[in-house]
Amino acid sequence: MKKDGVKLFVDGKRLDGRELDELRPIKMEVGVLKRADGSAYLEWGENKIIAACYGPREVHPRHMEEADKAIVRVRYNMAPFSVPDRKRPGPDRRSHEISKVTKEALESVVLTHLYPKTVVDVFIEVLQANAGTRCAGITAAALAMADAGIPMRDLISSCAAGKIEGKVAVDMMGAEDNFGDADLPLAISPQKKEVTLLQMDGNFTRKEFEEAFNMAMKGCLDVYEIQKQALLKKYEV
Ligand code: CDP
User: Fold this and answer.
1) pLDDT confidence of residue 4
2) Among residues 1, 50, 13, 30, which one has the least CA distance to residue 169?
3) DSSP H or E run through 213
4) Residue 5's pLDDT band (boundaries 50, 70, 90)?
5) To bridge 53 with a disulfide, which of 38, 60, 86, 234 should be the other Cys (CB 3.0-4.6 Å)?
């Protein structure tokens, strides 16, 4: 989107008062839905997201089943009331893309060979959106899967970095995403720091890319700590 003179820094701080390397406030809770096998609720800045996980369970339609492993299916959906301009209900190009990259980001850590001919279904419902919903959705979905007891090699943690007014910054919020210069969503399996999602929108120099990548990586590791706390909290007496 064109900038049209929008200022993204006030007195050297970002519009919401953050430093360049500071995440928005994040809250996570698991086990929020009774009828799902696993679930999570996540607030990340003004994003509000519910994730639900079902399975491993029988695959319908049957032709999708794999003889030697479980499949992972992901549906990312935005509620019509989640954005300032009403979002037309139902799937669109953007939600298909985000569902696909989310599935790929999560699938890599699932021990799919343990449950042949089954499916792990993951639903991500965005109730309120303010930039970075794919990272927030991936983070919530990984928690829901862990809450469901899906055998996984690791969690998946996600965070983006971007460029605003030529400066590299972590975790852009709405205005920064709309009027910023670039966006770099990242998801990792935090123990080995393996990248499971990396996308890029806009332009970075090589140096900026490295800076943004390192910032997003640090953001993912911070998110991982909050995920672990949310999972531990469920088992506290
Ligand atoms: O949400 P994320 O940054 O992962 O994906 P995006 O496609 O870059 O969208 C950025 C933001 O645009 C979303 O988080 C929403 O806040 C907003 N958006 C919107 O207002 N209306 C839509 N139909 C889609 C996105």
Assistant:
1) 65
2) 13
3) helix 206-234
4) confident
5) 38
Residue 66 gets which letter from DSSP?
A: B
Distance 51 CA to ligand 1 centre (A): 17
Which is the closest atom of ligand 1 to the Cα of 201? 8
Query: DSSP state, 23?
Result: P
Cβ 29 under 6 angstroms from ligand 1: no
Residue 137 alpha carbon, nearest atom of ligand 1: 4
124 lines ligand 1 (CB under 6 A): no
Q: Is 39 in the pocket of ligand 1 (CB under 6 A)?
A: no
Count how many Cα atoms sit within 13 Å of the Cα of residue 167 in the half-sphere of its side chain: 15
Q: What is the pLDDT of residues 101-138, one digit of tens each?
A: 999 999 999 999 999 999 999 999 999 999 999 999 99
Pick the CATH number of 16-232 from 3.60.70.12, 1.10.10.10, 3.30.230.70, 3.40.50.11540: 3.30.230.70
Say how many Å lie between the CA of residue 67 and the centre of ligand 1: 37
Interatomic CA distance for residues 157 and 134, integer angstroms:
11
Query: What is the domain partition of the chain in residue ranges?
Result: 16-232
Work out the percent of the chain whose per-residue pLDDT is above 70. Answer: 98
pTM: 0.97
Contact yes or no for 27/11 (Cβ under 8 A): no
- Residue 127 Cβ inside 6 Å of ligand 1? The answer reads no
Q: What is the pLDDT of residues 40-82, one digit of tens each?
A: 999 999 999 999 999 999 999 999 999 999 999 999 999 999 9
